[in-house]
Amino acid sequence: MLAAFFIEHLFEPQGQVYFASVVLTVIVSITLHELAHGWAALWQGDDTPRRTGHMRADPLTHMGGMSLLALVLVGIAWGQMPVNPSRFRHRYGHALVAAAGPLMNLLLALFGLTILALWTRWGAPVDGGPEAWRRNLEVFLFTFGRMNFALALFNLAPVPPLDGATVLSDLVPAYRRFLAGLRQPEMLFMIFLMVLFATSSAGTGLFDLADAATRAYLDAWNFR
Question: Exposure check for the chain: N or C terminus, fewer CB within 10 A?
């Protein structure tokens, strides 16, 4: 079962740090992702995020109880930020607001991995020190960077309801007309998920790309 697939890490001696790292990473990252949408919307002249009470660092506000439960059980979560595109002042305001979320994830990935690179280069060795917390910190920072790369790539996919679809449809009228002509746009998302599953099984999936990006960034710091 999918539920057992992720939550079982909580009961494995070597998996508890990973479980906690993923849960904490996703909660922090989705919360900041949604707040980035809100900050961009306010910058564009839309006060909907503030009026609806979403400009707060509260995971329940952005994710909701079902998303948090799904995260703990199956490792999947989602969030939302209400905006009103009709109030955006810029011609491409919708694209700017949508892109703010994945950009936040990219910045978070670079932030976490930079700390890891500095830590392992001038602090404790990568194989860990005598204290368990040193290795646990490395696991968390690596997971934080990798997960945020994955979230950025996932959300940039041009498939509704992901941010990438909003960006592309705002910049390319032909794609906007294509989406508008779809009777069941949610089927496009289902096909996308099946492609992700297939590529993941083949070792070329989303997390494989995120892992490659993570290791490439760390290699740039002469990470060993």
Answer: N
